[in-house]
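Dig into what follows:

_____
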Amino acid sequence: MRRVRRKNNLEHQIQSDITAVLRLHRCEVHRMNVGLFYTKDGRRVRTGVEPGFPDLFGVKLDNQKAFMIEVKTPTGKIQPSQINFHHMLMHNNVIHGIARSMDDALKIVDEELVGYGYPDTKDTLWL
Protein backbone atom coordinates (compact mmCIF):
# COMPACT_ATOMS: atom_id res chain seq x y z
CA MET A 1 0.00 0.00 0.00
CA ARG A 2 1.50 3.31 -1.12
CA ARG A 3 0.21 6.63 0.24
CA VAL A 4 0.09 9.84 -1.77
CA ARG A 5 1.70 12.72 0.14
CA ARG A 6 -0.03 16.04 0.68
CA LYS A 7 1.52 18.61 -1.64
CA ASN A 8 0.90 21.92 0.11
CA ASN A 9 2.64 22.40 3.47
CA LEU A 10 1.65 26.11 3.61
CA GLU A 11 -2.05 25.23 3.46
CA HIS A 12 -1.52 22.64 6.19
CA GLN A 13 0.19 25.26 8.40
CA ILE A 14 -2.60 27.80 7.81
CA GLN A 15 -5.15 25.10 8.68
CA SER A 16 -3.31 24.25 11.92
CA ASP A 17 -3.10 27.93 12.89
CA ILE A 18 -6.81 28.45 12.17
CA THR A 19 -7.75 25.40 14.23
CA ALA A 20 -5.69 26.65 17.18
CA VAL A 21 -7.07 30.20 17.13
CA LEU A 22 -10.69 29.04 16.79
CA ARG A 23 -10.29 26.71 19.75
CA LEU A 24 -9.06 29.71 21.77
CA HIS A 25 -12.26 31.51 20.69
CA ARG A 26 -14.51 28.84 22.24
CA CYS A 27 -15.11 26.74 19.14
CA GLU A 28 -14.99 22.99 18.74
CA VAL A 29 -13.12 22.40 15.46
CA HIS A 30 -12.50 19.22 13.49
CA ARG A 31 -10.31 18.65 10.45
CA MET A 32 -11.91 16.56 7.74
CA ASN A 33 -9.55 13.68 7.08
CA VAL A 34 -9.24 12.47 3.53
CA GLY A 35 -6.78 10.11 2.00
CA LEU A 36 -5.68 8.50 -1.21
CA PHE A 37 -3.63 5.35 -1.44
CA TYR A 38 -2.86 2.55 -3.84
CA THR A 39 -3.29 -1.11 -2.99
CA LYS A 40 -0.62 -3.69 -3.78
CA ASP A 41 -2.44 -4.59 -6.98
CA GLY A 42 -2.43 -0.92 -8.08
CA ARG A 43 -6.03 0.03 -7.33
CA ARG A 44 -6.57 3.62 -6.23
CA VAL A 45 -8.62 4.01 -3.02
CA ARG A 46 -10.01 7.27 -1.61
CA THR A 47 -11.10 7.62 2.01
CA GLY A 48 -12.93 10.35 3.90
CA VAL A 49 -15.64 12.84 3.01
CA GLU A 50 -17.03 13.57 -0.44
CA PRO A 51 -15.10 15.88 -2.80
CA GLY A 52 -15.77 19.55 -2.10
CA PHE A 53 -16.47 19.13 1.62
CA PRO A 54 -14.67 21.99 3.45
CA ASP A 55 -11.43 21.33 5.33
CA LEU A 56 -12.73 22.33 8.76
CA PHE A 57 -16.06 21.74 10.47
CA GLY A 58 -16.89 23.31 13.79
CA VAL A 59 -19.41 24.55 16.31
CA LYS A 60 -19.43 27.82 18.24
CA LEU A 61 -19.76 26.76 21.87
CA ASP A 62 -21.52 29.96 22.96
CA ASN A 63 -24.55 29.51 20.66
CA GLN A 64 -24.11 26.00 19.17
CA LYS A 65 -24.06 27.29 15.57
CA ALA A 66 -22.19 25.10 13.11
CA PHE A 67 -19.70 26.44 10.57
CA MET A 68 -17.49 25.13 7.77
CA ILE A 69 -14.23 26.60 6.52
CA GLU A 70 -12.37 25.88 3.29
CA VAL A 71 -8.67 26.66 3.88
CA LYS A 72 -6.64 28.07 0.99
CA THR A 73 -3.22 29.63 0.59
CA PRO A 74 -3.19 33.28 -0.51
CA THR A 75 -3.03 32.11 -4.14
CA GLY A 76 -4.98 28.84 -3.79
CA LYS A 77 -7.71 28.15 -6.34
CA ILE A 78 -11.22 26.89 -5.67
CA GLN A 79 -12.10 23.55 -7.27
CA PRO A 80 -15.45 22.94 -9.06
CA SER A 81 -16.47 20.39 -6.40
CA GLN A 82 -15.89 23.07 -3.73
CA ILE A 83 -18.09 25.54 -5.62
CA ASN A 84 -20.84 22.91 -5.86
CA PHE A 85 -20.67 22.23 -2.12
CA HIS A 86 -20.70 26.00 -1.48
CA HIS A 87 -23.93 26.28 -3.50
CA MET A 88 -25.59 23.67 -1.29
CA LEU A 89 -24.42 25.51 1.84
CA MET A 90 -25.71 28.83 0.45
CA HIS A 91 -29.15 27.35 -0.24
CA ASN A 92 -29.26 26.14 3.37
CA ASN A 93 -27.88 29.36 4.90
CA VAL A 94 -24.93 27.59 6.57
CA ILE A 95 -22.09 29.67 8.04
CA HIS A 96 -19.11 28.98 5.79
CA GLY A 97 -16.35 30.60 3.79
CA ILE A 98 -12.86 30.50 2.41
CA ALA A 99 -10.12 31.38 4.90
CA ARG A 100 -6.68 32.29 3.62
CA SER A 101 -5.59 33.39 7.09
CA MET A 102 -6.52 33.21 10.76
CA ASP A 103 -8.16 36.64 10.41
CA ASP A 104 -10.43 35.34 7.63
CA ALA A 105 -11.47 32.38 9.77
CA LEU A 106 -12.23 34.56 12.78
CA LYS A 107 -14.27 36.91 10.59
CA ILE A 108 -16.33 34.02 9.17
CA VAL A 109 -17.06 32.57 12.60
CA ASP A 110 -17.42 35.74 14.69
CA GLU A 111 -19.64 37.53 12.15
CA GLU A 112 -21.44 34.27 11.18
CA LEU A 113 -20.85 34.96 7.50
CA VAL A 114 -22.43 32.80 4.82
CA GLY A 115 -20.29 32.29 1.71
CA TYR A 116 -17.37 34.55 2.63
CA GLY A 117 -14.62 34.57 0.00
CA TYR A 118 -16.48 32.67 -2.73
CA PRO A 119 -16.67 34.60 -6.02
CA ASP A 120 -20.42 34.21 -6.62
CA THR A 121 -21.77 34.87 -3.12
CA LYS A 122 -23.06 38.39 -3.83
CA ASP A 123 -23.93 37.85 -7.52
CA THR A 124 -26.62 35.21 -7.00
CA LEU A 125 -30.04 35.22 -5.37
CA TRP A 126 -29.90 32.30 -2.94
CA LEU A 127 -33.26 30.78 -2.03
About this structure: The radius of gyration is 15 Å.
